[in-house]
Structure to design on (234 residues):
């Protein structure tokens, strides 16, 4: 109070105002040392349906999200699958682990644009049935072949070059799927592997995709469940 009396109220207002201005600017610019709202983090970015066929698929995706959850990928991973399917103009996509068809439907959104097809493998007849129903409901059953059985065996039937291989089944089995299918992945083709953060696959799979000189890998969304994206070099 003595200070206010001797210097007046103005310096006190200034002293309070300056940190307030600095704080609000740093907030909006995201300067280090201050809490930033991380712009973009909360932006809802739903995929826009470009036509009736996409609307139909997106509706089924939305319904699946209402539950029950059947070990489906993070929607972000689904969108990544869709975009990459279009980006590499995929004609032949192979999925290991169909569940009720959620990730497969994202892939189908991409395949509609590329004119490609998906072969998805599933060991559980109940969920394979659900997947088939969802594909029908979404109007993409003509794009997808569901292979029922243990994929460690059934992938031996695959012969065509693969543009995208998506691995999302039994975690200890990832390396076996990679070893069996890498020769079929075309140069420039992609291998995506879900759940790189949790429940993580075996170390030997991670070792294989990170140390093979013919492959280049990044891990994404590791603060959540994580997904590995690998390109087979030319
Ligand atoms: C994580 S879920 C797949 C989720 C799906 N990709 C999605 O996002 O909608 C794993 C699926 O792999 C299946 N699975 C586990 N082991 C398998 C195997 N050896 N062969 C084929 N499918 C298998 C399980 O039955 C389960 O439905």
């Amino acid at each position: 109070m003595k200070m206010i009396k001797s210097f007046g109220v103005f310096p006190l207002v200034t002293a309070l105002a300056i940190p307030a201005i600095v704080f609000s600017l740093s907030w909006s610019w995201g300067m280090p040392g201050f809490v930033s709202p991380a712009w973009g983090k909360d932006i809802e970015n739903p995929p826009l349906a470009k036509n009736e066929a996409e609307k139909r698929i997106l509706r089924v995706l939305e319904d699946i999200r209402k539950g029950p959850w059947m070990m489906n990928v993070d929607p972000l991973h689904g969108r990544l699958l869709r975009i990459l399917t279009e980006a590499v103009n995929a004609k032949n996509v192979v999925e290991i682990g169909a569940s009720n068809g959620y990730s497969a439907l994202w892939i189908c959104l991409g395949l509609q644009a590329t004119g490609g097809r998906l072969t998805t493998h599933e060991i559980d007849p109940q969920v394979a049935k659900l997947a088939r129903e969802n594909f029908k409901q979404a109007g993409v059953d003509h794009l997808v072949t569901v292979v029922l059985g243990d994929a460690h065996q059934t992938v031996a039937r695959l012969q065509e070059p693969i543009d995208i291989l998506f691995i999302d089944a039994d975690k200890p089995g990832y390396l076996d799927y990679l070893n069996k299918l890498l020769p079929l992945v075309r140069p420039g083709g992609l291998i995506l592997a879900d759940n790189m953060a949790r429940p993580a696959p075996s170390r030997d799979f991670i070792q294989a995709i990170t140390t093979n000189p013919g492959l280049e890998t990044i891990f994404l969304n590791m603060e959540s469940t994580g997904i590995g994206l690998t390109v087979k070099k030319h």
About this structure: Residues 22-36 have pLDDT under 50 and may be disordered. The first strand starts at residue 92 and ends at 96.
